[in-house]
UniProtKB/TrEMBL annotation, chain B:
Coiled coil: none annotated. Its main location: membrane. It is a multi-pass membrane protein. Keywords: Amino-acid transport, Cell membrane, Membrane, Transmembrane, Transmembrane helix, Transport. One of its GO terms (molecular function) is transmembrane transporter activity. This is Glutamate/aspartate import permease protein GltK.
């Protein structure tokens, strides 16, 4: 493991993945994945169930440790492979603190109020003062439209509200990159819009993001580039509109044909 | 034949009985706390990946869970001194036995409580950049402890009942004092009835508390 700037990369590359492989036991799940996202870019990651989208996303913030390859976020890079030792808890934590992640199941801390959930990262990880962190949390709640829920507990919130709090919690770390793993898949259809509009707003503010999503229209409209994965490989990548409306590979065409034309 | 119940003579033994109650309650509190600490350390160590750590601990837990406390008590009092070459006072042997016995159960309760926390909570904490210890302290334990409280209270109830075994080592707990009074008065019916009532008075509020907590958490 090494933490160093990879100098060959252009300044503007925010996320770089090089030759990443991951197996769970004998089962290969990611087979030589390389991709990059420029600063401010939004990449959507689509593909059938089990193709390795979540695993790749979790490799980006090292919740899952790749077996081989390099992951770079901003100026932090980590190499993995037989010649590299397993990174220490401290280095993993430092790396992860620069990457925000939003999960399908929200994973809010149920024993903390909304505002405490958002303050937790700044206070515990960054060592910021409580008043300072509370101000930040309230500003972020304003941003996601939930200021009046500051003192509510997560079990009093709707799914859409929970997910917006989860986004605010991730943003409180002032990450360089945000990752979304099917952030709207657990929501009732009428609540999807409120979460997507927050993501859309982040995109317009220039946040670098990777979106794993089954919302194909969203993958097309918000993302600049789209990657289609199958069986642990990147099958096709390119401008989001082109990949989704005019895919070249048979596998991509077959996958996209499952989504009604009306939805696209 | 009708038996003439007469509890009045017990009044003159109230000092002995009070000492017995203090020993029973004191041993319960001290061994519950020590057992909880040891059990907590075992539980945390068992979360490690290394088998050299987890296997011996698992063996320890199973040995103490699968042998009677009475056997552990007499083994530690009569047999352990031969191994370590140091005589143990009855109270010391009793403390060691009850602490380790309790620890083996506490460890499983604590480990189970920690394991019951959804992995998504770990993911969320890690994704924020929390280190292992902070994640434990801030996210996992506060949630896990709440779930552990009812089984922990139940274990303390058992722990208190087990202190009655101390009488075999002549530690002056409630039951031992009862035996003393009985041999002085030849009135086992009144004496042992009173002893049972005292245990009940101490334990009934505890079991009620455990039930109440269980019901509250189930909601
Ligand atoms: N922790 C794990 N241990 C073992 N196998 C795993 C683990 N995580 C994922 N896998 C396997 O890796 C493969 C890819 O899983 P992954 O969750 O990355 O797929 P996905 O593309 O996100 O699918 P979905 O659309 O269903 O979320 C699957 O076959 C899955 O069973
Ligand atoms: Mg997935």
């Amino acid at each position: 493991m090494t933490t160093e700037a990879v100098r060959a990369m252009p300044e503007t590359t925010m996320i770089a993945v090089e030759h990443v492989r991951k197996s769970f036991g004998p089962v290969p799940v990611l087979k030589d994945i390389s991709l990059s996202v420029p600063k401010g870019g939004v990449l959507s990651l689509i593909g059938p169930s089990g193709s390795g989208k979540s695993t790749l996303l979790r490799c980006l913030n090292l919740l899952t440790i790749p077996c081989e390859g390099t992951i770079r976020i901003g100026s932090h890079a980590m190499r993995f492979g037989p010649d590299h030792r397993m990174p220490r808890d401290r280095d993993l934590a430092a790396f992860r603190s620069t990457v925000g992640m939003v999960f399908q199941n929200f994973n809010l801390f149920p024993h903390m109020s909304v505002v405490q959930n958002i303050m937790e990262g700044p206070v515990t990880v960054l060592g910021r003062g409580r008043d300072d962190a509370r101000d930040l949390a309230v500003r972020l709640l304003d941003k996601v439209g939930l200021r009046e829920k500051a003192d509510a507990y997560p079990d009093r919130l709707s799914g859409g509200q929970k997910q917006r709090v989860a986004i605010a919690r991730a943003l409180a770390m002032q990450p360089e990159v945000m990752l979304f793993d099917e952030a709207t898949s657990a929501l009732d259809p009428e609540l999807v819009g409120e979460v997507l509009s927050v993501v859309r707003q982040l995109a317009s503010e220039g946040m670098t993001m990777v979106l794993v999503t089954h919302e194909i229209a969203f993958a097309r409209d918000v993302a600049d580039t789209c990657v289609f994965m199958r069986d642990g490989f990147v099958v096709e990548e390119g401008p989001a509109r082109q990949i989704i409306e005019d895919p070249q590979q048979a596998a991509t065409k077959a996958f996209l044909s499952h989504f009604h034309k009306a939805a696209v | 034949m009708t038996y003439e119940w007469d509890f009045s003579f017990l009044l003159q033994y109230k000092g002995l009985i009070a000492i017995g109650a203090l020993y029973t309650i004191g041993f319960t509190i001290v061994t519950a706390i020590a057992g909880f600490v040891v059990g907590g350390l075992i539980a945390v160590a068992r979360l490690a990946d290394a088998r050299v750590v987890t296997l011996p601990l698992l063996a320890f837990i199973e040995i103490f869970r699968c042998t009677p406390v009475l056997v552990q008590l007499v083994w530690i009092y009569y047999a352990l001194p031969i191994v370590i070459g140091v005589e143990l006072k009855p109270a010391t042997a009793a403390f060691i036995a009850l602490t380790l016995y309790g620890a083996s159960f506490f460890a499983e309760i604590i480990r189970g409580g920690i394991a019951s926390i959804d992995t998504g909570q770990w993911d969320a904490g890690r994704a924020l950049g929390m280190r292992r210890a902070a994640l434990m302290r801030r996210v996992v334990l506060p949630q896990a402890l709440k779930r552990m409280i009812p089984p922990l209270v139940n274990q303390v109830v058992l722990q208190l009942k087990n202190t009655s075994l101390l009488s075999v080592l002549a530690v002056p707990d409630l039951l031992y004092q009862g035996q003393l009074i009985t041999s002085a008065t030849y009135k086992p019916l009144e004496v042992y009835t009173m002893i049972a009532v005292i245990y009940f008075i101490i334990l009934f509020p505890l079991t009620t508390l455990a039930h109440g907590l269980e019901r509250r958490l189930a909601r």
